[in-house]
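Design job #97: recover the sequence.
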């Protein structure tokens, strides 16, 4: 095991994302300290992680080269922040999506770690310049935005603060690659990052098509799951364009750019996701998947099982 993996990663926050990060880092052989300021939360999270790792091992879906027991031996829980941070070279904040809460965490963490420790946030939509505004040394700050659930969906968006050093991006990229994630580097911060901006564009047009009576909720979801999603699971939209014309991208643009512009100019305004259209979407989706917790939980479990299989296939 490399000397790097003898170092420590501290995960601050033991909720769903914090637990997922811990599992990802453990799968790469790193030592992980899991911190939560609520008594019993971190130790309870370890019990849940143990259950998940043992189930993954039984299903032969455990990531990494270590057994579940070996991974768990590298995990500890803490309620004292100083103790949790001791020896860490990388801190992954995973508290709930609230700007003041995240700012408070990093203000406290910075006072307890050396200048060389990288401070990383799991935020999905808050700008790095806001998240790290109370940090004095912002050159070592970065957003590492995972996709839920991170253990099965491996993309991580690395988003720099305007002052982040290139070397910090390199360390974060190497770490995420080493633990089996698929990191992408944004060259500058932008609201929504890349994944959510693309996702919101798809959501908006899907919503407009349902709202305007063009297609049903069931069928627009099939457009993605049985159409676009089939190829997007393996190649992205730019490569799709490149492969969809006999002579590649230049040929594709010559053939289709006018049609794309014509269609794009018919797109309506951003939906407000409320009122009668929202009521109709809610009614249709709840007819397909009732909104009660047992139905949603079963559907999420199905999603995760399918994602596990897809992740294995992509390997």
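Job complete. Output follows.
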């Amino acid at each position: 095991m490399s000397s790097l993996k003898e170092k420590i990663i501290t995960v601050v926050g033991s909720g769903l994302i914090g637990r997922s990060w811990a599992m990802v880092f453990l799968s790469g052989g790193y030592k992980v300290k899991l911190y939560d300021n609520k008594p019993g939360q971190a130790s309870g999270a370890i019990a849940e992680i143990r259950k998940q790792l043992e189930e993954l091992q039984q299903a032969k879906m455990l990531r990494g080269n270590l057994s579940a027991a070996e991974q768990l031996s590298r995990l500890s829980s803490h309620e004292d922040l100083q103790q949790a941070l001791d020896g860490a070279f990388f801190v992954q904040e995973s508290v709930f999506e609230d700007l003041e809460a995240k700012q408070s965490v990093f203000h406290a963490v910075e006072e307890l770690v050396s200048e060389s420790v990288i401070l990383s946030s799991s935020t999905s939509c808050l700008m790095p310049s806001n998240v790290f505004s109370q940090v004095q040394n912002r050159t070592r700050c970065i957003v590492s935005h995972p996709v839920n659930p991170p253990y099965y969906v491996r993309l991580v968006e690395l988003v720099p603060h305007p002052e982040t050093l290139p070397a910090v991006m390199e360390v974060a990229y190497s770490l995420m690659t080493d633990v089996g994630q698929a990191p992408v580097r944004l060259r500058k911060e932008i609201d929504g990052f890349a994944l959510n901006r693309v996702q919101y564009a798809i959501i908006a047009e899907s919503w407009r098509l349902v709202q305007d009576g063009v297609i049903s909720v069931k069928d627009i979801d099939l457009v993605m799951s049985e159409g676009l999603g089939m190829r997007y699971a393996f190649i992205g939209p730019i490569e799709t364009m490149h492969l969809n014309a006999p002579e590649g991208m230049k040929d594709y643009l010559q053939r289709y750019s006018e049609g794309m512009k014509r269609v794009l100019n018919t797109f309506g305004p951003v939906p407000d996701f409320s009122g009668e259209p929202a009521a109709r979407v809610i009614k249709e989706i709840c007819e397909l998947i009732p909104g009660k917790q047992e139905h949603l939980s079963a559907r999420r479990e199905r999603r995760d099982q399918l994602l596990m299989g897809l992740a294995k296939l992509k390997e």
